[in-house]
Amino acid sequence: MNIGEAAQASGVSAKMIRHYESIGLVDAPPRSEGGYRRYDDRAVHTLRFVRRARNLGFSLDEIRGLLSLWHDRARASADVKALTLKHVADLEVRISELAAMRDTLRSLAEACSGDDRPDCPILSDMARMDGDDCAGCHS
Question: Ranges for the HTH merR-type domain (predicted)?
């Protein structure tokens, strides 16, 4: 199948397929005599694997590791589990950081009267010069 068909079958856009090939995440397929990429079922299966891993939030480097483990039939499942649990821990940190951002923004929005006056606690908070957050800032 050509790249468009592979994209449709895998759920990965043709642009992303080319990108994944260019960075060596997936192997570039053989080309036809006319120079077109020719994908087989195995390549599409790999692209689906990558799409699923991306949907689960794995980075490209983590996916590279997962693909390596997936292709290594002598792998220990403990290696896959360790990589996955590390990703879960990273997600938990990000979730906590996002929740803190949400709470801060919610508090700032509640403190803002939202009227026609120019004073704005949201902008005032962002312009604060406490620590390194705003080194060299001017209001």
Answer: 1-69
User: In this structure, what are the phi and psi dihedrals at residue 135, rounded to the nearest 5 degrees?
Assistant: -60, 125
What is the count of structural domains for the chain? 2
In a domain, 70, yes or no: no
Q: What is the pTM of this model?
A: 0.77
Contacts of residue 51, defined as CB under 8 A and 6 or more positions apart, other chains included, come to: 10, 11, 12
- CA distance linking residue 84 with residue 88, whole number of Å: 6
Distance (Å) of CA 137 to CA 22, 125, 127: 40, 12, 7
Q: Which domain holds residue 90?
A: 76-129
Question: Residue 56 forms beta bridges with which residues?
Answer: none
Q: How many CA atoms lie within 13 A of 24 on its CB side?
A: 3
Chunked mean pLDDT (size 10), the chain, 139 residues: 96 97 94 91 97 97 96 95 96 97 94 89 87 48
